[in-house]
Amino acid sequence: MSRYRAAIVGTGAIATSHAEALRAHADRITLVAVADLALDRAQTFADAWGIPAVYRDVAGLLAAENGDSSGGGLDLVLLCTPPSTHAPIAVQCLRADVNVLVEKPPTLSLAELDHIAEVAATSAAGVGTVFQHRFGAGAARLRNLGSELGRSLVATCHTLWYRDDEYYQVPWRGRWETEGGGPTMGHGIHQFDLLLSVLGPWEKVTAMAARRSRPVETEDVSMAIVEFADGTLATVVNSVVSPRQTSDLRFDFEHATVEVSHLYGYTDADWTFTPAPGHEDLRRHWTSDGTATSGHADQLRSVLDALDAGEPLPVTLPDTRMTMELIAAIYASAATERPVRRGEIGPDHPFATRMNGAVSAWQTSSSITLSTDR
Fold first, then answer.
1. Cα 298 from Cα 132, distance rounded (Å)
2. Under a CB-based contact definition with an 8 Å cutoff, are residues 296 and 21 in contact?
């Protein structure tokens, strides 16, 4: 197998997960550089992980590491910076023909994502989005079962987390301009991306969102009813005001219910399989050793396999757009108090360029302006 060279851009908390994932695949990829505007923090991170080169910015990183010197160029940048920087840095990497794996949320808007896709079409490199929950063994097993379970009927997708006021003291959090949205954008996104990877295209969304407690510009809770192309009805709830934290997905098929309950990442042991009466034989398809996880290393393995095969990086831009369009539709439905259909948010739609769309509509909607007094 090929040996690749990688760099991490941004050394916040999530960068550690990426460094751990790279170390888990050290026989296939080497972490050769790190970049962060806070050079001292980058150096501390480099010292901790044995990274030989440190840079203040992406331009310096690409200029020094992506040449034809003894290193042979960069193969992959893992982008761990705040959300508002994702699109411009991803474009820099693509224009240097360097593959880039972007943390969630990948962009602040559909328009930014579409711009990345335009640049990617002219680049020798590609883009993948970090949606690692797709890559756990339980999710793969569920997708592979297909018609064995019968028709999909009902689903629930609840991300009930807790973030206190101190969490939002980080300047870019809880602001439309820098985070792009609240828990719908930055927290529940992993769960409902997994939901979409199992159920396929969604068709219509009816949603509400509210600012119930946190000192933010965005919502701190949202609730949506989603209709899928196959007729499945799902509820999607996203919260950062829930003291008992849990992440739950449930799929009710004709012949079985499949569930996963965890917090920030699942193992096979977190899944349960309940056959319908008369379909107990389906249990033979649901076997595991209880250890497989849904971490960054699992997705990185698939990224490396794609590089080996010369295939697009998972999760692809079209896959990502399906998830991002659902987010835009939830915000648009909450603000306008009406259903939104897939494909409705075109390039000229206000919610294509900003997740709060027509700002005045968001601010005056009765579902959004609930008191922040506590």
1. 7
2. yes
The model's confidence at residue 369, banded by pLDDT at 50, 70 and 90, is very low
**Which of 248, 199, 247, 253 lies closest to 226, judged by CA?**
199
* Domain range 4-133+297-315, CATH class: alpha beta
160-176 pLDDT tens trace:
999 999 999 999 999 99
Residue 250: CA atoms inside 13 Å, Cβ hemisphere, count? 13
Tokens describing residue 192: 């409902």
338 DSSP assignment? S
Contacts of 331 (CB under 8 A, 6+ apart): 181, 184, 207, 209, 351, 355, 356, 357, 362
Q: Looking at residue 268, what DSSP letter applies?
A: G
CATH for the 134-294+323-364 domain, from 3.10.150.10, 3.30.930.10, 3.30.360.10, 2.60.40.10: 3.30.360.10
Per-residue model confidence as pLDDT tens digits over 19-45: 999 999 999 999 999 999 999 999 999
As a whole number of angstroms, the distance between CA 251 and CA 156 comes to 7
Residue pair 136/290 in contact by the 8 Å Cβ criterion: no
Q: Which residue has the higher pLDDT, 19 or 358?
A: 19
**Is the whole-model pTM more than 0.85?**
yes
Tell me the pLDDT band of 288, cut-offs 50, 70 and 90. confident
CB-CB contact of 165 with 215 (8 Å): yes
Burial 184-211 (b: 16+ CB within 10 A, else e): bbbbbbbbbbbbbbbbeebebbbbbbbb
b (16+ CB within 10 A) / e for 145-169: beeebeebeebbbbbbbebeeeebe
Going from N- to C-terminal start, the domains of the chain cover 4-133+297-315, 134-294+323-364
Phi/psi of residue 267, nearest 5 degrees? -110, 175
What band does 372 get if pLDDT is binned at 50, 70 and 90? very low
